[in-house]
UniProtKB/TrEMBL annotation:
This is Ribulose-phosphate 3-epimerase. The keyword Isomerase applies. Its EC number is 5.1.3.1. NCBIfam families: PRK05581.1-4 (NF004076), rpe (TIGR01163). It comes from Herbinix luporum. The keyword Metal-binding applies. It catalyses: D-ribulose 5-phosphate = D-xylulose 5-phosphate. Binds 1 divalent metal cation per subunit. GO terms for biological process: pentose catabolic process; pentose-phosphate shunt. Belongs to the ribulose-phosphate 3-epimerase family. Its cofactor is a divalent metal cation; Zn(2+); Fe(2+); Mn(2+).
Amino acid sequence: MIKLAPSILAADFNILGEQIKILEESGVQYLHVDVMDGNFVPNISFGPPLISSIRKNSKLVFDVHLMVEEPIRLLNSFKESGADIITVHPEACSDLIKTINTIKEMGLKAAVSLNPETDLNKLDQVLKDLDMVLIMSVNPGFGGQKFMPESLQKIRDLKEKISKAGLAIDIEVDGGINHDNVMDVIRAGANVIVSGTTVFYGDIKTNVNKFEEIFNRFKNEVDHE
């Protein structure tokens, strides 16, 4: 099943609660939350207090992407605030295995994010324990960047790697995804699609419906193969 995960980094924080309600009414299941510490990536975004605030009125799956140094020290705070999935970067973890194990022990889903320059072999020691892998199709830390087309081959290679290992792991892609290129992304093997500006700029329901129409076209392609 293909899922849309709108990134609230592109939302209007003056009416964030209203926009999340529109997402839920539009059938969205995931909400992507980019947490940036100003250290691992240059920008600073938000943390557990914001997540706790929106958790009170939302039943969406909170897909929390930690772009922070040594995320293991913050895992409990994000669990308590309402995270369902926690994604970490191998470059930011001194002990990736321990970090993933800690997320799983907390009863949350665990994911690893790979920057554009990060090789798939970074997953070798933890792949069997992951629920999802996030492929960054832009450099992390900034919204509104253009999709890197070379990411498509990385998605294909990851899909093959997961298949050969006999695992069932979601492939998420984040960065520059819009209505024009999302079909290429899901054809490559992704099934969780992060999009910010293309969802939140303009009419949210219309934007979400356009994504769903594309997802359905892909499903029809697969059904007729």
